[in-house]
Amino acid sequence: MIGVGDMVLLEPLSEDSFLENLKKRFDHSEIYTYIGSVVISMNPYRSLPIYTPDKVEEYRNRNFYELSPHIYALADEAYRSLRDQDKDQCILITGESGAGKTEASKLVMSYVAAVCGKGQEVNKVKEQLLQSNPVLEAFGNAKTVRNDNSSRFGKYMDIEFDFKGDPLGGVISNYLLEKSRVVKQPRGERNFHVFYQLLSGASDDTLKKLRLHRDVSKYNYLSLDSAVVSGLDDAANFRTVRNAMQIVGFMEDEVQSVLQLVAAVLKLGNIEFKPESRCNGTDESRIKDKNDLKEMCELLGIEQSVLERAFSYRTVEAKLEKVSTTLNVAQAQTKTRHKVMGVLDIYGFEIFEDNSFEQFIINYCNEKLQQIFIELTLREEQEEYVREGIEWTNIEYFNNAVICDLIENNKNGILAMLDEECLRPGTVTDETFLDKLNTVCAEHQHFESRLSKNSKFLTDHSLPHNCFRIQHYAGKVLYRVEGFMDKNNDLLYRDLSQAMYKANHSLIKQLFPEGNPAKVNLKRPPTAGFQFRASVSTLMKNLQTKNPNYIRCIKPNDKKAPHIFTESLIRHQVRYLGLMENVRVRRAGYAFRQTYEPCLERYKMLCKRTWPHWRGRAREGVEVLMADLQVPAEEFSYGRSKIFIRNPRTLFFLEERRRQCLQDLATLIQKIYRGWKCRSHFLLLKKSQIVVAAWYRRYAQQKKYQRIKSATTVVQSYARGWQARKLLRELKYQKRCEEAATTIAAYWHGTQVRREYRKFFRAHAGKKIYDFTIQRIMQKYFLGLRNNLPSMSPIDKNWPARTYLFLDGAHAELRRIFHLWRCKKYRSQFTEERKAVYEEKLEASEIFKDKKALYPSSVSQPFKGDYLEISKNPKYQKLNNAVDEKVLLADVVNKINRANGKVRKMNKGLQGQVKASVPLPDLTSVSVSTQSDGFFALKLKEGSASAVKGDFLLSSEHLIEIITKLHRIGATATDREQLSIDISDEFLVQFKQDKVCVKFVQGAPKNGNSVSCKRKNNRLLEVSVPATA
Predict the structure, then answer these.
(1) CATH T-level fold of 592-689
(2) Which residues fall in the annotated binding site for ATP?
(3) For residue 294, which phi and psi values (nearest 5 degrees)?
(4) Binding residues
(5) Catalytic annotation present for 350
(6) Residue 905 reports pLDDT greater than 80
(7) Highest mean pLDDT among 67-81, 155-169, 829-843, 963-977
(8) Where is this chain primarily localised (predicted)?
(9) Judging by beta carbons within 10 Å of its beta carbon (0-12, 13-18, 19+), is residue 900 exposed, middle or buried?
(10) H/E run at residue 302
(11) Three-state secondary-structure class, residue 43
(12) Could you give the residue range(s) of every CATH 3.30.70.1590 domain in the chain?
């Protein structure tokens, strides 16, 4: 071991030898040293390979002094005391800023998480406890001139364990977050880590949603001179924080709410105010550029006008009246009981060039922690020796209770006077507060001020007029009173809290519950100093209920560099931490003490006279126990209510004996249990064997009975079979005799009948044979026809060939009947629409088949009817509205000019108007040619209104469909004659007063037209149709 691992064993003991031992161990990377059960931790400012999983296993369940000093040894001792002895523990980590307190707390928590139980739920709780650190550091730590990861708040975590020592959860309490750092940072320092992590590590899409830019210089709240810190990767830390928030239990929408709030704080820093004067002479403020205000309101879901008014106005309420006043620029810019192990990681003692209210509160907290250390390790230990009647030489030490009283005294303490000044009516400033301090605390030996009544400080030029100095246990600290009053008031105007409560942002509502109009409280809120003093008091009471374990952190140098040991700095820390006094008390005192009852209860199994029950007094039992164990008398002393053990090795000896005894007892219990278990098992087997044997004998007898019964049945069956077969043979013989007699009689009667019938047989035999042959031929024909029937298609003309000529008529008739039946089946599948189409096609066949050359080409074309789609085409909307009845056919046709015979395309509904209409009763007949043309003449009734200009001669591509529909309409009408259809190559038409003959001739096509029409004279119109191939 390098140097001395436990300062209690250091010889000779002096301050120089103490420091020399620390330096020797520090130079060899031994950063941990003991003072009894207190661990001294030196910050190495570098990573050391002493925190591996192998190290964790090495220190697990080992005695405190068994291995070299390590923080894991203290964590293991605290955990085992909590688990095995049911004592609540607390680990107090103290030291000044930059000494490594936060890292020490992480190591303690990681060790406890590694050595406690396993399981899905346990691992989840452990992971949540460990991952709470990155989240808390992001929002509560910042870079300072002394520490790149300085805690700017106090953190106390209570980790709860069940009876097995498995973690159940934790409760984290925080103390005095340095809120002023958000708006202002000293030179060389940064704002809280989360702002830089968000801008560096968030994706471009996230920054766009939050309306942020990656450039740090765009935000007034972020200092530029220390925006980048060597050794800190803000982007990677942001990803770590996001992952840790999910593990801790943040939902994704909650994470987004937190990030929106962080972005809103950055936007808030960019809002600037300009002064203005009102007509009544009062000052007011206005926001210069409202763009950042608008984006901030969008992020938080607040109306811009509401927030702008809250920034510029405040409401003063007196009795039942409310007065709204404007803010000037300066005011507008101001902002089941479980086992418990507590880990305290709180800000260290701070001495800066410019110390304000925050440093005063932080140093006050460190004074209280130093006081509890003195109470529990120095004063209380010495007083306990005297109280118990142990021979003891008193050791002098500095008690800082006088400094704590200077700060927290309810009447004349600095915090009490600060609260009194804040509540006093009239003009109250930082200067009036300092005047009051100079009056009340002037004679106090630890208070110094230039303006106090004490004349010895009047010429002290190192003490400015607006400052006061306190001589703390760690040294003198100069405090500037500027800002003490405002920071202690910590006021948030009600208008701002109510504006924030109106936000649609759920997190903002939770942060400002006092903004709820239904819960308006006119009582003045407590000051920051009062709240912190109450929190510290609660913390001290909590710590005093637990068994303390101390880690005293020491900063080796101010350069934050490895391998540098600044002796003067460390000597100062050793002095104000009281480490030398702690060593002296430990060397002169006893390492372990315990009341007689629990001591006897714990170790009574080591002596046969005290095990298992001791009937006398507890002290007498402990004396018998120690005498039986032959512990040297100089190693322990008996007090009035406790036994004191001087050397830890004696305690280790007792624990080792107890462990061996517990193993022996466990072995005995196991032996008795195994014997009982084996006997019980044997008796159960014996009982089971009897039951099994009984059931087996029963089963064997049943099987034997079944075999005998089966054999008897077989014998009986064979006997009955023999008897039955014998009877059967007799019956068969009797039956054969009867059948023989019957057969002989039958043959005899047959012979007689045949003799009588023979003379009639030849006359009727031929006809019967013929009828039988014809019947067999017909049967064979019908069966063959059934097996060779054609398909069900009506157009299938296949039919099986006949085999006999005499079946020719029947064969043809069956073919006709089958075809009719097949057609009927086919027609039964038709819908009404399809049936109507086929009826039209059938009627067209009756009219034009073998009469019109155009007909065969129209058979395969379906009759569509409405070729213009009048109901859908917007061009024919008026025409569609003008027709009330259903349109059966709408098509474009060509009209033949009556004067010259030229063909002109005609669309009766082209402009959406009806130019001419012909009622169906005025139509007498229709004439068409036999050729393949599409010409047809509509002959009108003479004297009708439609026949003024004469008959119509038209041409259409759908001639067959048009004529068929006209004929069907005429056939279905009962009030008029059926339309006559004339199919001829020559027919007469009436053109006004002249009768003209329309003649169709075959000829070659002209001008590319297939059909041409020409007026020869007044009496003849010739239509030339190309000859068909």
Answers:
(1) Alpha-Beta Plaits (3.30.70)
(2) 95-102
(3) -65, -45
(4) 95-102
(5) yes
(6) no
(7) 67-81
(8) cytoplasm
(9) exposed
(10) none
(11) coil
(12) 592-689
This model's pTM is above 0.90:
no
CA distance 933 to 471: 127
Q: With 70 as the cut, is the pLDDT of residue 453 above it?
A: no
Say which residues have a Cβ less than 8 Å from residue 484's Cβ, sequence separation at least 6.
356, 357, 360, 418, 430, 433
Indicate if 102 belongs to the active site: yes
Q: Which two tokens stand for residue 88?
A: 């609540």
- Taking only the tens place, the pLDDT of each residue in 557-604 is 988 889 999 999 999 888 878 788 778 777 666 666 778 887 888 888
Whole-angstrom distance, CA of residue 395 vs CA of residue 582 = 10
What pLDDT is recorded for position 318? 41
Q: Could you confirm whether 180 is annotated as catalytic?
A: no
Q: How far apart are CA 837 and CA 864, in angstroms?
A: 9
Catalytic residue, chosen from 348, 589, 621, 950, is 348
CA distance 151 to 154: 7
Separation CA 496–CA 515 (nearest Å): 8
C-alpha–C-alpha distance, residues 342 and 355, integer Å: 30
**What digits encode the pLDDT tens for the residues 939-957?**
888 878 777 778 888 888 8
Distance of CA 899 to the CA centre of its chain: 88
Beta partners for residue 939, in sequence order: 925
- Token pair in block for residue 826: 């086919």
> How confident is the model at residue 747, as a pLDDT?
92
Q: Report how far residue 928's alpha carbon sits from residue 937's, in angstroms, rounded to the nearest whole number.
A: 7
Query: 1027: helix, coil or strand?
Result: coil
Domain with CATH 1.10.10.820 in the chain: 117-145+178-270
For this structure, is 98 an active site residue?
A: yes
Alpha-carbon span 864 to 890, nearest angstrom: 9
Strands of 329-371 (E only): list them.
339-345
Give the pLDDT of residue 683. Answer: 95
- Residue of 97, 110, 438, 932 marked active site: 97
Backbone angles phi, psi at 481, to 5 degrees: -75, -10
Of the candidates 65, 60, 10, 19, the one whose C-alpha atom is nearest the C-alpha of residue 42 is: 19
Check residues 880 and 732 and name the one with the higher pLDDT. 732
* 541-547 contacts, C-beta under 8 A, 24 or more apart: 542/90, 542/156, 542/342, 543/90, 543/92, 543/342, 543/344, 543/372, 544/372, 544/376, 545/88, 546/87, 546/88, 546/89, 546/90, 546/340, 546/342, 547/78, 547/81, 547/87, 547/88, 547/89, 547/90
Active site residue 845: no
Contact 245, 255 (CB under 8 A): yes
pLDDT class of 457 with cuts at 50, 70, 90: low
Hey, how many other C-beta atoms are within 10 angstroms of the C-beta on 28?
11
Tokens of 878: 């008026």
Whether the Cβ atoms of residue 98 and residue 152 lie closer than 8 Å to each other: no
Taking the alpha carbons of 200, 201, 204, 207 in that order, is the dihedral positive or negative? Answer: negative
Take residue 613 and report the two structure tokens written for it.
């029950």
Sign of CA dihedral 657, 658, 660, 661: positive
**Per-residue pLDDT tens for 992-1003?**
778 889 888 887
Distance CA 420, CA 404 (A): 18
Task: State the catalytic residue, choosing from 37, 150, 191, 1012.
Answer: 150
Q: Is 677 left (phi over 0), alpha (psi -120 to 50) or beta?
A: alpha
- As a whole number of Å, the CA-based R_g of the chain is 59
Contacts of 159 (CB under 8 A, 6+ apart): 109, 112, 129, 167, 169, 170, 340, 341, 342, 343
Catalytically annotated residue among 41, 43, 94, 102: 102
Provide the pairing of β-strand 1020-1025 with 994-1002: parallel
Catalytic: 934? no
Set 41, 105, 110, 147: catalytic member: 147
Residues 6+ apart with CB under 8 A from 368: 404, 536, 540
